[in-house]
Amino acid sequence: MSGDHSDHGHDHTDGPDQFHQKLHHINGEDVDGGTAQTSGMRRYAAISGESVGSKNLWMGQTHVDAGVASANHHHGESETAIYIVSGSPEFVFLDTDDNGEPFERRFKTKPGDYIYVPPFVPHREENPSADTEAIVVISRTTQDAIVVNLDSLSAPEGK
Fold it and tell me: How big is the CA angle at 59 (ends 79 and 126), to the nearest 5 degrees?
């Protein structure tokens, strides 16, 4: 991965002068596709422990082809913030109605919208467009791209 980086082995928060650390620049064409994946999506890491030495943050982009739905998944202990760059992806999760009955809730989005996904919440992304790829920027509270693929949106037994 190219771009402007300081030494990746350096501890970026300890030391006598935390106010004079280097910033990092990752070129958009240099994002790394070698990250955790879910069927139907392509994730690319930009900011991570590996690329810049971050400790509590992972940031990258996800591409969902036209007419494709991801597998059901969650991101473990990580909180996830999503910004819609292009396309109109839909985010699906299991909610309950007033009687406590589960149903699939769907958030339809457009460029400029944001989605927040709490830790461990099963969900999936769908791109209903017949001809437009959806691209989103994702930020997580862990430096790793945690992805746990699931058979359904229901919580595993005992949860």
Answer: 70
30/154 Cα distance (integer angstroms): 36
DSSP 8-state class, residue 143: S
Structure-block tokens of residue 101 = 């009955």
Residue-level pLDDT, tens digit, the chain, 159 residues: 445 544 444 444 555 577 777 887 777 776 666 666 566 778 888 888 888 888 888 888 888 989 999 889 998 999 999 999 999 999 999 999 999 999 999 999 999 999 999 999 999 999 999 999 999 999 999 876 678 889 999 866 655
> Among 25, 18, 19, which residue's Cα sits nearest to residue 52?
25
**Strands (E) located in the chain:** 42-47, 58-64, 72-74, 80-86, 90-96, 102-108, 114-117, 123-126, 134-140, 148-150
Q: Which fold has domain 46-150?
A: Jelly Rolls (2.60.120)
Q: Yes or no: say if 45 and 145 are a contact pair by the CB < 8 Å rule.
A: yes
d(CA 92, CA 107): 6
Where in the chain are the domains?
A: 46-150
**Strand partners of residue 140:** 58, 80
